[in-house]
Structures are given as structure tokens and as C-alpha cells.
Specification:
Elements lengths: L2 H23 L3 H5 L1 E9 L6 E4 L1 H14 L4 E10 L3 E12 L2 E14 L2 E9 L7
Parallel strand pairs: 1-6
Antiparallel strand pairs: 1-2, 3-4, 4-5, 5-6
């Protein structure tokens, strides 16, 4: 494995651990600390649908996520794949979304630049209907 790939995996796995912590607890500080100032993210639905740019927008997005997920989500990592700069994590999640039982299959990708995450994209599997 090339050095760039090793660093990409290390940084992305640390970010995913912080991401998981954020979803479970609503505390996003460790994850947000790993984002570049020019961080961009893409989300498939809702208030933040489409491309969003900037760490401040990311902070607002993840706060919005936590407000929608009172009580947090439980994640189960299924698998991951990577190249030199990007790692994709596939997982199942379960919890309460807007006061209703929720479970889904999700894929998120983290783009890595040096020791930070510079990009994030999220894809829904079953849109909350199955796990």
C-alpha cells in the first residue's frame, strides 16, 4: 500500500470514529476539528440538499442532524473501500428520527487532504424503510 493510501485510511478512520461519536451523542467537536476550512459536503435531501461549502455550514448541518436525531443513532459498520484520497464507509444505522423509529443503510465518503477531511458525501440506501 502506498504511503498516501496509508495516511488516507488512518485519517479517514479517525474521522469516522468521531463521526460515529457525533451521531451517537450529538457532540460533533472532535469531527469538526478534523475538517478543513474549505470543507465541502453533499447531502441528498432536505434543508442542506446538494453541495454545501465551508466549515461554518458543516457545523450548522451537523447541529441540524443532531436536532433531528434526539437520542442519537447506533451505527454498525459493514465495510469500507478506499483509493489514494477518498474512503467510503458503508454502514447501517438505527434510532429515532424526528420522533419516529428509523433505520437505514448509508454510504458516506470522506475526501482526505493531509491530516484533515476536505470533503464529505452521503448516500441513503433504503430511505429509512429497512435495515
Amino acid at each position: 500500500m502506498a504511503q498516501g493510501s496509508e495516511n488516507t485510511l488512518k485519517v479517514a478512520h479517525q474521522a469516522f470514529a468521531h463521526f460515529t461519536h457525533g451521531l451517537e451523542t450529538g457532540d460533533w467537536n472532535l469531527f469538526l476539528d478534523m475538517l478543513t476550512e474549505d470543507f465541502s459536503f453533499w447531502f441528498p435531501v432536505g434543508k442542506f440538499h446538494g453541495l454545501n461549502v465551508g466549515k461554518d455550514n458543516a457545523r450548522a448541518f451537523f447541529q441540524y442532524v443532531s436536532e433531528s436525531l434526539k437520542g442519537g443513532l447506533t451505527l454498525t459498520l459493514e465495510r469500507f473501500t478506499s483509493n489514494e484520497t477518498t474512503v467510503v464507509f458503508e454502514f447501517r444505522d438505527e434510532g429515532m428520527l424526528l420522533g419516529e423509529p428509523y433505520k437505514n443503510r448509508i454510504a458516506v465518503s470522506f475526501d482526505v487532504r493531509e491530516d484533515k477531511i476536505c470533503g464529505y458525501r452521503e448516500y441513503f440506501g433504503s430511505n429509512g424503510k429497512s435495515n
